[in-house]
Amino acid sequence: MDTNALLEKVAPLASKVRTPEPFSLETVKATVAQTLAPAAATIDAQGIYPREFMQQLGHLGGFGQTVTPAFGGQGQGFRSAIQVIETVSQACLCTGFITWCHIACVWYTQNSENLALKQALLPAIATGTQFAATGLSNPMKHFAAIEKIALVAERRAGGYVINGLLPWVSNLGPGHVFAVAAQIAGTEDYLMAVVSDRIPGLTLKPTAHFIALEGSNTFSCQFRDVFVADEWVLAAPCADYIERIKSGFVLAQVGMGLGLVQACVESMERSNRRYGHVNGYLDDSYDAIAPDLERLRAQTYALADHLNGDSAPSSPGFFRQVVQARADASVLSLRAAQAAMLHAGARSYLLDSPEARRLREANFVAIVTPALKHLKKLLKTLPDAPTA
């Protein structure tokens, strides 16, 4: 199936999209509590992809918070998108991560100037009728001078031919779409496009096993002469486009940290009912972590209120504030997960304890692109925010 045929296959999904019902975060919270939370341990232990929950979340409008109703979204804004990721991550970071993957692709698509692609694809992914993902880990590291670009694209009539290997892309499966970036051969320019394993030459292969997030459906993606039609190109060249999407890409990930830390704080609070008389001697007590969480949440929401589907703030220092919030989420996740283990004591050391799972998940928050070391590298070079 070529990319034009794929577009014809995806486009009818837009006509099947129901008019979104008014969004309710409380309904999402109730669904998470009833459906996802009881399954979190199984998702973690058995590496099960939570497809049914993801479909439910799409039906509830969880993926379309930044998208206008005209394109099948809720139009609630970026703060609401982060709150969805936060709510899901509080119960299961694996599912919170793939929720971010999907929302990231929604964000890329709505910020594209390719109107035909937006009309065909955006309603389907904004409502979860079509699952979506992001393959930008490698290019994000490439643009930070950390590693070489993995994909190369050659211009052909009507599109581009892409070759290369992306080692890890999550929230994939048969028929899922995902965004990629490739260097245009013979130039210093890049393109971003949406692709799928339904395109000839694009093969998904299972990766090595991870210590956490095994249910994230993570694959390596081999591109062998994959033809991507112009109709599927998000931007080419994409320098200005990346400036529009990068703040949202990074800031939405803070929702994962907020949810994880909230779960750790609640675990610490429960542990204190029995061991509060001794837990208070720990350096990272409940009284130390909980206020830091509230500060990070307030900072993140304030930054989110400056983002919308059309542009990102261009004021000097805004992206630095976003990067700092993301770095703070990594550090606080590590602190909170360690503290929750120490608060719970020996029972946290059981193989299936939620505290042990969150300790593994917290390290993922600090390792997933942009990793904490990547963020610290950026903070050395980004301009400071202007002072009043």
Structure write-up:
With 388 residues, this protein is α+β, with helices and mostly antiparallel strands. It has three domains: 3-132, Acyl-CoA dehydrogenase/oxidase, N-terminal domain (Butyryl-Coa Dehydrogenase, subunit A, domain 1); 137-235, Butyryl-CoA Dehydrogenase, subunit A, domain 2; 239-381, Butyryl-CoA Dehydrogenase, subunit A, domain 3 (Up-down Bundle). It has 13 helices and eight strands. A hairpin with a 2-residue loop joins strand 2 and strand 3 (159-169). Helix 5 packs antiparallel against helix 6 (93-110). The protein starts with a helix and ends in a 7-residue tail after the last helix. Residues 11-15 have low confidence and may be disordered.
Superfamily at the CATH H level of the largest domain?
Butyryl-CoA Dehydrogenase, subunit A, domain 3
CATH class label of the largest domain: Mainly Alpha
Structural class call reads alpha+beta
The counted number of beta strands is: 8
What portion of residues belong to β-strands?
Answer: 5-15%
**How many domains, as an integer?**
3
Low confidence ranges: 11-15
Number of helices: 13
Give the overall silhouette.
globular
Distance between the terminal alpha carbons, to the nearest Å?
56 Å
Mean pLDDT: 92
Indicate the percent of residues in helices.
Answer: 40-55%
Draw up the topology in text.
Blueprint (H helix, E strand, L loop, with lengths): L2 H14 L8 H12 L3 H7 L4 H9 L18 H14 L1 H18 L4 H12 L5 E3 L2 H7 L7 E6 L2 E11 L7 E8 L5 E7 L5 E5 L12 E11 L3 E3 L3 H41 L6 H19 L13 H27 L9 H14 L4 H10 L7
Parallel strand pairs: 1-4, 2-4
Antiparallel strand pairs: 2-3, 3-7, 4-5, 5-8, 6-7
